[in-house]
Amino acid sequence: MGSGKVWTGKWQGGRTFTAKDGRPVYVLRKMVAGKTYTVHLDARSETEAEAELALFMRDPEGYRTKGEAQKLKQESAVYLDAPTVGRYLDFMRRAGTTPRYVSSVGFYLAAWAEAFSGRDWRTVTLQDLLRELNRQATARKNRVTALKAFCAWLREEEGTLTVAEDATISLKVPVSRPEKSVREKGYSIETIERLYRAITGWEFTNFDREDMRRVTDVQCVRDVLCLHAKTGMHGTEIERLAQGEGKITILKEPGEIAATLRFVHKSGRVHVQSIDRQALAAAQRLQARGAAPVDSHIRRVVRRACKALGMELVRFGELRHSFVTWASECGQEVRPKSGGLPLAAIAAVVGHTSPATTKRFYENVAVPPMIKVPLRLEHPEDPAVLPIKAAAAS
Question: What is the mean pLDDT of the chain?
Fold first, then answer.
């Protein structure tokens, strides 16, 4: 032996020598298909060595010792860590996912990452996931949905996780709690008017720049509330509008309808909505800001206002339902100064069996009717609404 080792014995698969610490080392020496293999085994006894020999003979090329297999496993480990989550969120952004939903998914994945920090995701079992899920009191459906989508990305895009290794495949998405079917949806006009007046930023006796910034941040929450309550827009639509993806067109001859908002509806169709002067001012301020306030800021401001009023938390997501309810109970249809007829009347004349058919042909009408509800959103901190001509000139 050129290495200075002295063979001390033989076994079924080869020979043995004694290590410096006195333990026997089993060396596998075999010729298979004309190729000679010499492998130092991680075996503590001849029985273990014979078991490794059986594994070797099953697949000589693919055989790895215990140490080699462990090292290879560590090198190919899959972790739910910040860099991996960051790549997934970038993938979502490139796919056109809204910033709001990306932020929400990032929040839930961060919670999973904290729970399984340093754990090779391939070793996580369904029981591990269920135990962690049972420790979470809220948003279980969202947590599971975010995790399953992330693991699907690991399998299909990254290729670092196999179906056999992915415990989330057997993880069922919980059924949403029937909260909305139990409690009454929507709010009264009086509730929203009181809330609007209570959303205030004037809490200081001497203003500095930081105080003024906080007042402005509170104003943008009122602006979001105004658009929700006066138009029934989705939150994602208001976000896109604020980011400049929605177009504001001021009417040359404004009446009660001051302008139109043109944006892509969540169905994918282009939607045009008429708005009054107050909603126009709110939309312009949000676009000048460049972004709608984040959900956490809205909840913080609204929670403080609701607490001051002694009322339950108002959820902006239900204002669309409120708007539809108000419109059906006490709304009025306001048409442009240039006139126009309701779609139902046009459908009757042209022979369409449903106004919905008419709408598909004429949904890009320049100035659609506006639904006016008896909602007065007033606050002493609101900037004065400029005349329409002055706003257009700016």
Answer: 83
